[in-house]
Fold Signal transduction histidine kinase.
Amino acid sequence: MADLRAQDRVIAIMRTGLLVVTAVVQLGLNAAPLVRHQAEYRPAWVVDAAFAVLALVTAVCAVWVLRGRPLPTAVVAVGAVVVLVASSAVTAALPPDGFFLDVHWSFGLVGWHLLVLLFDRVGLLVAALGTHFAASVVQFALAGGHDRAEVGAAGVVVLSVLSFQAAIAVITLVLRRQSRQAALVAAERDRVTTRAALAEQWERDRRVTFAGQLGATLPLLVGLADRTLDPRDEDTRHRCALAATQLRRLFAENDEVPDPLVHEVAACVDAAQRRGVEVSLAVSGAAVPVPTAVRRELTAPLVVALSAVRGRARVSVLRTDEEVRVAVMTDTEVGIDGGSALVEVDCGTYGEHTRMEARWRTRTG
């Protein structure tokens, strides 16, 4: 977005420059010939009105251009027509021998107005400039009575003005295209930088998560290695089962799968089954998007329950539009802490059986 705004600023500066040139050419260079040849126009009031209309077009364009905004389509359309009509009116009021001379001040001026108006519409700009020059040449030819010297001089003036204003149009087009390409390159660079930063952040978060899980596992491994923990001890076996289930779920969290929640729950179930526990899994409802942090909260009580069970367990996942539930029924008494700000956890013990349910409401309020 910043690159697009920079491109818009460049275009606004270019349009402002054309507007200033137009105003300077009209008031600084063409006002004097208008006054000096006032008596030669037939009728003079038409030429005066055309000069005032052209000045008004410049003033109207300045309302948007000086604020860095593109011209509205209606202003462009009406302005281009008015400018071409004013040019033809001035040319029609010229004396027969005044074409493309000092008295014909509108011929070169109108092209600048068209550049300002049609700055963003190159095709229309070329068509308008062509129409302006063709109309002037036709009016010159219809006036008649021109000798070879006048025709040659007129051709020189037409070609010089045409080539100069065409060069301005080409330069403007090239600058606009280069600014657009620079903006696209800068935007792509920003996207690449953003993706790299996000990937780095994701990798850093994953390392922190793994470090947090391994932080609880490493003391267990150290205790087993230096024989301060007895693998035959019930508490040690429970700690090992808990660590294995946590790591199995953590590895599943980073898999690219269509249904991450069920995939992570299935990973916990698989870890329990590998220890010889009979675990059944039931899933109902269509998959719904569940954020990673919420999935961790939903499966955390399940990890604790399955790591403690020794015989059988039933796990169920229920998804609706309003909530997601992960429940487990075990044949072993398990103590599970309450929920969090993200997930509600209900736990009840019935004799030697424990039922736990973690619930996340997809819609709050």
